[in-house]
Amino acid sequence: MILKIYKSWAVRHEHPTNYILHMFGIPLAVAGVAYWVMQQWLLGTILFVLGYALQIWGHRIEGNEVGEWILIKKIFHSLTNRT
Asked: How many CA atoms lie less than 13 Å away from 78 in the CB half-sphere?
């Protein structure tokens, strides 16, 4: 299961710059959430936004969409196309 998720992730992060931006962006976003849990809202928000900005920048370089946006579109599609 984890290997399958990683392989899917790796395919969308093949450009070296995108990969490097994610190696910084993901920990920053996670740290932002950790600071929110500690109720340090300003620092948490700065880290979270910076982390996601790096990841979005990487996906623009790669030429594909951010994974969360793909998930949101799939959920919306499934909700609007029920038979």
From this structure: 5
